[in-house]
Amino acid sequence: MTHHQLKNEGARLTVHLDGPAWDGAVAATIGDVSFRDRACGAALMDQALTMIREAGRDRVLGPMAGDTWHSYRFVSESDGTPPFLLEPSNRPEEPAVFATAGFLPVARYFSARMALADVDPTPPPPTDAFHIRCWDGTAPETLLAEVFALSSEAFAGNAFYTPIPQDAFLALYRPLMPMMRPDLIFLARAPDGALAGYLFAIPDYAQGPQSRTVILKTYASRVRGAGRHLVHACHAGALALGYDTVIHALIHDDNISAARSRREGARIFRRYELLGLRLDG
């Protein structure tokens, strides 16, 4: 992937010229943004957009470090609580510079919080299509390879999705595995043992090592109903482990997960936006 790092005395960013498709055209992305000074950020933004135009791109997404597998999105609304583990955060100057350059929201997301005591304890109807178990903590590379294959299939229809090689995926998740609790990784397996779905949850260590909040980070499935069963297993399992709060993290507003989170009564505490700019007007 072609990318260029730009910086001046008060700002830095990275331009990726080969980002996701947007309305049928390859978009450039601007990510790894840090604007300590608005004027410096604006000057760097002008330089980045000139580079993108000269490269022949007429779509730009940001903030996005090349693709949605990496860091993207600005916080657009907040209740003021501190960021949770792995949550994107930004200075006010950063979205302001993007807005001044003409960027507008192209996708919206939210995070919501709920007390585990308020979760409906009724399990979903039983099924013979799969069974849910916690990961046993063995063979992490094998598990990640299975998760990569399922994710590549399940996320392929998402807006701004870009496939990545398995090695790149493993490089993203390997550093997280030591922080993960096997009893907060839930796997749905078909009768033949094939992975039908997965859910990764992680304690919010940003609150400290004894955090009583668990983050429902990622889940995906290839079998209808598996997502619902996985979420229920996560809520019930986290409650049994002594956690009292769950965060439904970084959900796209139009995703089925959003409807599920709202239906369960989770309260939104943060909103995010991905921004886009059409250079052809």
Short descriptors:
single chain, 281 residues, Aminopeptidase, twelve-stranded mixed β-sheet, two-stranded antiparallel sheet, globular, Acyl_CoA_acyltransferase, N-acetyltransferase domain-containing protein
Characterise the protein shown here.
- This protein has 2 domains: 3-110 and 273-278, Aminopeptidase (3-Layer(aba) Sandwich); 116-271, Aminopeptidase (3-Layer(aba) Sandwich), CATH 3.40.630.30.
- The chain contains 6 helices and 14 strands.
- The chain has helices at residues 38-54, 93-100, 140-154, 166-173, 226-240, 256-263; strands at residues 3-8, 11-16, 21-22, 25-26, 28-35, 59-62, 74-78, 104-115, 131-134, 185-189, 195-203, 213-221, 245-252, 267-278.
- Strands 1, 2, 5, 6, 7, 8, 9, 10, 11, 12, 13 and 14 form a 12-stranded mixed β-sheet that branches. The chain has a two-stranded antiparallel ribbon with strand order 3-4.
- A hairpin with a 5-residue loop joins β10 (185-189) and β11 (195-203).
- The longest helix has 17 residues, at 38-54.
- It starts with a strand and ends with a strand.
- The mean pLDDT is 94.
Detail the topology: elements first, then pairings.
Blueprint: E1 3-8, E2 11-16, E3 21-22, E4 25-26, E5 28-35, H1 38-54, E6 59-62, E7 74-78, H2 93-100, E8 104-115, E9 131-134, H3 140-154, H4 166-173, E10 185-189, E11 195-203, E12 213-221, H5 226-240, E13 245-252, H6 256-263, E14 267-278
Parallel strand pairs: 5-6, 12-13
Antiparallel strand pairs: 1-2, 2-5, 3-4, 6-14, 7-14, 8-13, 8-14, 9-10, 10-11, 11-12
Helix pairs in contact: 1-2, 3-4
